[in-house]
Design goal:
- There is one protein chain.
- With 278 residues, the protein is of the alpha/beta class.
- It has one domain: TIM Barrel.
- It has 10 helices and 8 strands.
- It has helices spanning 17-27, 43-55, 69-74, 79-98, 118-134, 146-155, 168-172, 180-184, 221-231, 260-277, and strands spanning 5-8, 31-35, 58-63, 102-106, 137-141, 162-167, 188-192, 237-239.
- The longest helix is centred in the N-terminal third of the chain and has 20 residues, at 79-98.
């Protein structure tokens, strides 16, 4: 149970992605994940997956580009939506080609529009059909507009290849502390475990999405462990954190004194601490 610990590379570290894999291995992680570049090629995926395997690290998921997910639902002309769809298909292709089981997809991007459309769901139907054909699993993430996630999970409730990626930090800020695991946990496929200090104002803002290491914010990690157990989830525990934080915010400054290896090693210590709670 919970044998594998995964860390998403990137983390705002001033170290090339490929070299970050060595940091993960040195710290003790079993797996990694990464964000696919918008309009990217498969070259980076190949490089990272091959280097990870050389080091003994598996690739847990590839995160699809997300700027443009709102176009899927709201671009009636279709030109912008088509660009986003190409990124989704490209992510699925990479997962299939390089043996990565999960693609993580933001349900939406954007703070203002909270009205999922039938047009968007129809476009996603084609994406889901393609993923099923390629034997790739799509984990949709709780982001700013949980209405979109609800619409997607409801539409594809009977499709085993469609599930939920739980972002604990997004729950605290974007979802105003509403229990996303209670709503979608039975479809839980992937975790994005991280911390923050919740909403700091009345309006939703990405500045509150600090992606702190677990136990450095206000999340109740004992309760979160209980909620994850209640879902019946026994898969990899994946952590998505950043070292420097958002513009003009200071929450992440507590890591400024750490080297890249020290930061990744601290991330591993926190990951083990949370796994012990489970």
């Amino acid at each position: 149970m919970y044998e594998k610990l995964c860390l998403a590379i990137g983390m705002q570290l001033d170290v090339p992605l490929r070299e970050q894999l060595t940091l993960l291995k040195n710290a003790g992680f079993d797996a990694f994940a990464f964000d696919r570049e918008r309009n990217g090629t498969s070259d980076l995926t190949r490089e990272l997956v091959e280097e990870g395997r050389r080091l003994g690290l598996s690739c847990e998921y590839i995160h699809a580009p997300f700027y443009g997910m709102d176009d899927i639902f709201h671009d009636e002309d279709g030109d912008l939506a088509e660009k986003m769809l190409r990124d989704l298909y490209g992510t699925i292709d990479d997962c299939c080609t390089f043996g990565v089981k999960y693609a993580v997809i933001h349900a939406i991007i954007g703070m203002d529009n909270h009205n999922p459309t039938e047009l968007g769901l129809e476009r996603l139907q084609a994406v889901v059909d393609y993923a099923v054909k390629k034997e790739v699993f799509l984990a949709f993430e709780n982001t700013e507009g949980e209405e979109y996630l609800e619409a997607i999970i409801d539409r594809f409730a009977d499709v085993p290849n469609v599930g939920f990626c739980f972002d604990s930090g997004h729950e605290l800020c974007y979802n105003r502390g509403n229990d996303m695991l209670a709503r979608f946990g039975k479809k839980l496929m992937v975790t994005h475990l991280n911390d923050n200090v919740g909403m700091t104002g009345d309006e939703l803002t990405f500045l509150d999405d600090a992606h702190l290491l677990p136990f450095d914010g206000i999340a109740d990690w004992e309760a979160m462990a209980e909620r994850i157990r209640d879902c019946g989830y026994q898969g990899t525990l994946s952590f998505e954190v950043i070292s420097k934080g958002r513009p003009d915010r200071t929450e992440n400054h507590i890591y400024n004194h750490l080297t890249a290896q020290e930061y990744v090693s601290l991330a591993y210590e926190r990951a083990v601490r949370f796994r012990d709670l489970l």
